[in-house]
Amino acid sequence: MILIMKNRIDYNEYDFIHNDPSISAQGLPFSLNLLSFAFSMVMVPMLIFMLSNFFADKFQDKKNMDILFPQQTKICERNRFLAATLLFLAVYLIIVVFSLVIGTLVNGLGDVHFPLYYILENKVGQLTVGGALLQTVILQFLSCTAVIALLQLMNNVTKNHILSILLTMLITVPQIVAPIVLPVFNKVMHLIPGAYIATPNIIDTAWANQTHNYQLTFVNGILVSSVYLFALLLVNYGYTQNAGRGLFIKASRTLSMR
To answer: Distance between CA 119 and CA 3 in Å, rounded?
Structure first.
């Protein structure tokens, strides 16, 4: 996919979308630009605030009412996670489709095969705008699904609506801005799951070039986000099971004492 080799490359020479307003206003490029870093910084807090109630409603006086029915705890946890994920997916796709419609009405849909040029390690490569948008939607959705899993875990651990929101924000937002404000982590930036939430910056290699970490790629993003999501689900499952078992043992001892 590498097209051109030069000793020194001027990115603006190949940045056709941003240099040509008529192209950037078309449906496909407009959607791709919309889902960039700024959108991620707005979307993630909205996601956390919007979905927190899915996991907080089960607590009454900091007690998990699901644990009263130990056999149903796993099902309830799974259903809440799936419902929250599906709601986010619906909202996310509505935003993508809406941006496509707005851009299309203004300047047409654009060519799915329109070439985008990216620079990686002083080499220029090519990707179609349709392929870039598809990769963005896949990786960004996967990354945000991991945020939902983290929010669920924080709710189960803290049993406090506001505290779970704050902790999820404190863990996630620094990861998103890490490529900009945390250069000390540049060498391991590809292992930070939140760095992939601003997916267009991964696809166009902006983060890779800024951090000089050329492992910040779409493929690594899928791997890291998947492992992070699986780990969060596993920890949440273990925590919920142990909490339920502990409550059951405590209730049994109380009844036996009577």
So the answer is: 10
